[in-house]
Amino acid sequence: MKKKIQQAFIETINREYLKCAACGECRMVCPVYGVEGVERSVARGRLALAKALADGDLELTDRVQSSFDNCLLCMACVENCAGHVDMVEVVLKSRAYVASLRGLPKVKALAFKALGTDRKYQDLGAAGARAVQSVCTAALPENSGLRLKLARLNYPTLPPLAKRPFIGSQDRVYGADKRQKVVLFVGCAGNYIFDDIPRKTVELLNALDVGVIVLSHQGCCGAPVQAHGDLRSLETLVVNNVQVLSDSEFMDYPIVTICSSGGLMLKQHYPRILLQTPFEKQAKALSCRTMDISQYLADWIGIDTIKSKIKHKIPHTLTYHDPCHLGRGQGVTTQPRALLKAVCDHYAEMPDAGSCCGLGGTYGLSHTDVSRQILDKKTNNIAAMDKVPTRLATGCPACIMQLTHGLARTIPDMEVAHTVHYLWQALICSDPCRS
Ligand code: SF4
Ligand code: SF4
């Protein structure tokens, strides 16, 4: 495995390095470079470091490793590079190479391994974490000094964990009698934190005459494991999901995702990860069946059908943030906007809606200060809009966490939620102001 990783690193870097014209255009769009302004924080600089490492001209030091770690995987450089340098691939291969030589911190390695175990152990872990969270929250009164100190730290606050995971121990079909059916890929955030997102997705789809299949053995999409270079754990997770979602009984149904990173994994990364393995064909077929919920609703169900089911429109000024892995990653930008405009007459486009929110998975925890500065740019843009919105929709649970945290400081009455939430409010909820 180690040899394979190192060979893949060298091949990738040599291939991508040849494409780079060293034009420096990536400096104009990289959010990290925008804050730090140094060459090692931008695609061109990272690529040069990786090339020197691959050629054996550079020693692997903490400083070199930090250049690969200091990337949000936001794809802004990929989208804007005339040479089509795939910087995400460069960074992922570099991180895997570093992990193969230096190993991962023990806690991280254990956590990633745990993601590949039977889900009942993860459910137990989540239940334990929830108990600790409840005790801590209850033990700290609203105005306690420690609570205020914690709030001043720049970490996005983890919302209360779900009372119980959304995915049950048995496969479930919600709306077995419906005309069409989809398989729902839930993702860890939807399963353990924002369980209202899959729940509202099911209610919304059922109301549109679509049955929803939730397979109990689906697991983590592998995005956090991939981002940290643990390829062994990654393969376990990916193979499990490919096998579960390729069950012949459900092969004819589209797979709908409600998390932009999970969707990107299934659509783009799985076929690449399983290239030249016995699962390659299944991964490609799975990729073709996968689409984001907004894509399914706008392109398959249709905006006119959505409009015909509206009970009441959203009465607030509503805006939309493009998650990097949905907009740039999957090219899904028009569908969420069309859906939101259908249910809200006060939709307002924010400036630079596709700029990264700065969370980047665990980047927000490991690079708190840079992450906060990137977030500030985003929230200042929103606060400076002619008509300041009080509702913000997006398609990624992680963006919801980060933007909720950032906007609480600039627009106190702002609500940040998944696109599905606003559609659910308009089509299902009897009183949108109380949901
Ligand atoms: S924009 Fe692309 S080609 Fe230009 S320096 Fe950056 S990575 Fe190289
Ligand atoms: S992926 Fe984003 S953060 Fe990373 S180098 Fe490219 S633009 Fe910068």
TrEMBL record:
**What top-level branch of life does the organism fall under?**
Bacteria
In this protein, which residues make up the domain named 4Fe-4S ferredoxin-type? 9-40
Question: Which protein is depicted?
Answer: Glycolate oxidase iron-sulfur subunit
Q: Recite the UniProt keywords alphabetically.
A: 4Fe-4S, Electron transport, Iron, Iron-sulfur, Metal-binding, Repeat, Transport
Under catalytic activity, the entry for this protein gives: glycolate + A = glyoxylate + AH2; (R)-lactate + A = pyruvate + AH2
Cell wall biogenesis/degradation as UniProt keyword: no
Query: What does the record give as the function of this protein?
Result: Component of a complex that catalyzes the oxidation of glycolate to glyoxylate.
Q: Which cofactor does it need?
A: [4Fe-4S] cluster
Q: What is its EC number?
A: 1.1.99.14
Gene3D superfamilies referenced in this protein's UniProt entry, alphabetically: Alpha-helical ferredoxin
- Record text on cofactor binding: Binds 2 [4Fe-4S] clusters.
What GO MF terms are annotated? 4 iron, 4 sulfur cluster binding; glycolate dehydrogenase activity; metal ion binding
